[in-house]
Amino acid sequence: MQRRHLLLGGSAALLATTLPGCGGGGADAGTADTMASTSDGLSSAAGVGRTTTTTGTTATAAKARVIVVGGGMAGATVAKYLRLWSGNTIDVTLVDRNARYTSNIMSSMVLTGQRTLASLGYGYGTLASQYGVKFVADEVLAIDPVNTTVTLRNGGVLKADRIVLAPGIAFDAVPGLSDPTRMPHAWQAGAQTTLLAQQLAAMPAGGTVALTIPATPYRCPPGPYERACLLADWLRQRKPGSKLLVLDANADIVTERDNFSRAFLGLHGQVIEYRPNAVIDHVDPAAMALYLADGSRVSANVVNLIPRQRAGALVATTGLATATGGRFVPVDVLSYACTVPGAQNVHVIGDASATTQPKAGHIANQEAKVCADAIVRLVSGGLPDTGPVTNSACFSTITMSQASWLTAGFQYDPVARAMAPVAAAGGASDGWSGDHFEDMLTWFKALMADSFA
Ligand SMILES: Cc1cc2nc3c(=O)[nH]c(=O)nc-3n(C[C@H](O)[C@H](O)[C@H](O)COP(=O)(O)OP(=O)(O)OC[C@H]3O[C@@H](n4cnc5c(N)ncnc54)[C@H](O)[C@@H]3O)c2cc1C
Question: What's the whole-model pTM score?
Answer without folding.
Answer: 0.89
